[in-house]
Amino acid sequence: MNQQYITIKLRLRDRHFTELNRQARAVNLVWNYCNATQRKAVNDRRYWLSNFDLQRLTAGSSKELDIHAHTIKEICDSYHRSRKQFKKPWLKWRGQRSLGWIPFKAGHVIFDGGVFKFRNVKYQVMHIRDDLKSGIRIGAGSFNQDSRGRWYLNVLINVECATSAPLSYVGIDLGLKNLATLSVGDKIEAKGFYRASEVKLAISQRSKKSKRTNAIHAKVKNRRKDFLHKASAKLAKEFGLIVIGDVSPSRLAKTKMAKSVLDAGWANFKRMLTYKSIRNGGSMLEVSEAWTTQMCSVCGSRPPSRPIGIAHLGIREWTCDYCGTVHDRDVNAARNILRIGLDTLVEGAA
User: Fold this and answer.
1) How distant, in Å, are the alpha carbons of 110, 122, 240 from that of 133?
2) Amino acid 235: pLDDT
3) N or C: at which end does the chain have fewer Cβ atoms within 10 angstroms?
4) Could you tell me which of 242, 93, 268 has the C-alpha nearest to residue 170?
């Protein structure tokens, strides 16, 4: 069978929080040292430190700080990458309110006997996944803390993929009222988890109850993630080829529809469909959805009766002037997306 690398997130038991909080404070200390050193180098000599410079300056401090030496190296690498990415001479300081973060490199976490071992310390998780087996190779990852103070283990593992997929295909048109409309006519309704919690959030924010606010945000995020996981897994198991439109969530997040777009979770849905399709032996293809709403999926024409522009967004059903086919707007778009995907594959094969 083929293999695929995936990142999994596992919640750790509360008994480990004290030790992880201590290491996280040491990580913040190293980060702030790198930041202070970089700032001094820029102000004094107009010199930009590389990750190798930072590693040399922090070498030998792991024993005093009681954290892994490779963790310190990863902090230096991460600081250097972040500074280059944002094109800044130095970055923000990590204070007491910073969320916990303890990075590690591949091979330093071992899974054996149902527990994870890091620096000869055993860490237990709340739930063990079925694809975790003793002796499995654990890639690079990190311990991370959420806004509620809970700690999670994020690791890269290798899982087996199916060699064959169902001989079926589907086109998907993403939307706000319906998360996904399929070319076969089915629709997956968008749940709107954030919208349903807006009243509770407003009350807790006006009352300045930060813990309550963080708990509501976390619940909304977890419910949305669980819903997207189940919906994407069902589609990946049912269809061998999934073709989806290239609608850009990041661009629409800058418009008046931002709250609804982010609540729908299009980006996470696409990402889940991608790796779950591969795991089930299939594939996902993203194609341009230009004109897919205005084009008749039966005769391929763009009749005068088609919905055009923002003014016709309320038209959800229309009839083609040339062939007389009555179209559901979203289903028609999904069928056109599927046709474009199949044509793309045929052209690529030719």
Assistant:
1) 11, 16, 28
2) 96
3) C
4) 242
Sequence-ordered list of residues with C-beta below 8 angstroms from that of 46, at least 6 positions apart, any chain: none
Chunked mean pLDDT (size 10), the chain, 350 residues: 83 95 97 97 92 95 95 96 94 92 94 91 91 86 94 91 86 94 94 94 94 93 95 95 92 89 94 92 92 90 84 84 90 95 82
Paired tokens of 101: 């973060």
In this structure, what is the dihedral angle of CA atoms 238, 240, 241, 246, given to the nearest 10 degrees?
Answer: 50
Distance, CA of 139 to CA of 103 (rounded, Å)? 11
In the DSSP assignment, the letter for residue 13 is P
pTM exceeds cut of 0.70: yes
The DSSP code sequence of 37-94 is HHHHHHHHH--PPPHHHHHHHHTT-HHHHTS-HHHHHHHHHHHHHHHHHHT-SS----
pLDDT of 166 reads 83
Q: Could you tell me the two tokens for 57?
A: 């300056």
Residue closest to 31 by CA, chosen among 87, 81, 86:
81
Q: Are 250 and 262 in contact (CB under 8 A)?
A: no
pLDDT at residue 350, rounded to an integer: 57
The sign of the CA dihedral 206, 209, 212, 213 is: positive
Q: Phi-psi bin for 255: left (phi > 0), alpha (psi -120 to 50), beta?
A: beta
Per-residue model confidence (pLDDT) at position 96: 84
Q: Which of 162, 145, 167 is nearest to 154 (CA)?
A: 145
The CA-based dihedral angle spanning residues 52, 57, 58, 61, taken in that order and rounded to the nearest 10 degrees: 140
